[in-house]
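EI: anyone free to look at a 394-residue chain?
SC: sure, send it
EI:
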Amino acid sequence: MTRAMGFGHYAAHFALHTQPFHLKQCGLPQMAQIGAAQSFTLSLSSLNPGGICFAKNVPANFVFGDSLVDAGNNNYILSLAKANYLPYGVDFGIPTGRFTNGRTIIDIVGQELGLKDFTPPYLAPTTTGPVILQGVNYASGGGGILNNTGKIFGGRINLDAQLDNFANTRQDIISGIGAPAALKLVGTALFSVTIGSNDFLNNYLIPVISVPEQKLISPEMFVGILISRYRRQLTRLYKLGARKIVVANVGPIGCIPYQRDANPSAGDNCAALANQLAQLFNTQLKSLVTELRTDLHGSQFVYADVYRIVDDILQNFISYGFENANSACCHGAGRFGGSIPCSPSSKVCWDRSKYVFWDSYHPSDASNIVIARRLLDGDSNDITPMNVRQLAGL
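SC: here you go
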């Protein structure tokens, strides 16, 4: 479906035209010194007329996923899933296509690890040449593991197509700096995959439309299909040279304002079916990540339990400094403000930092800070077998 929506046209239009790059060693600002890791990495921030410095301990960052981590790719495709208008980005300074009021989890992780610039979207015309050596964001709002996920939005870039795009970037890096340096960069870079929510919310659980599918395919069968496809996709990422790969599970999607308003019989509780599906998927995903880490030589697959982290925030929101854990800050209709997507005509809460949810689907910048810090420095209950900071330092 992604192909049918003309993605090939956009990929061709914004094809990368790289020239050979020259490398040189250079110092780093203090904020980029993270532990005693020996990572080979490249920092765009060190770009100078004499060539590109490669900065130790600050890995290149390659991002795959959906609207939780999209940095603007959907700005460049024909899609109903867009966030390039106010009030999105109200605390970022400008709407960028990020589906929140400020930064995504990936933005915050990158800042904490010392990256000077946010990882740029693949389809942006400026994501070319030396810029790609710092990493690229391939995520797309509405995207999923399955290629028919998100078709209600029209255009979106599902995970298979995101991997195709990374393969293109990888070849451009090889053309730019040569195969040995390129493969070392990719092998020490940080990869993250945050996807799966849309496979439920905008596929298996779509009101009315998905009823026939639910009668034909049990939840267990559907999750099995997802895991089987995901296994192939993550294995392909490994075969393309990725070694440090963070795989985020699906959060408590039954607790988002959209699901709360779509299931009024739940009252003040989260929608049970959506959360049950997420937990069923997550149980099998954790086993898959362990399997891949064991079977794929030299891989460092890490399982990020976003469900547990977000559930903890929702259960203990007051202790985290929030005042509202069930309603959308940017709201239009519905008891929880989740019935209508956030738009320029929506009402916006006065203090965004007090809301767990920014809109019908997505966490606020304040929530993303909590999630990012737990992934960066959390214990094995949050992320296993190591946290992001430890992974980056390998």
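EI: Residues 1-56 have pLDDT under 50 and may be disordered.
SC: 👍
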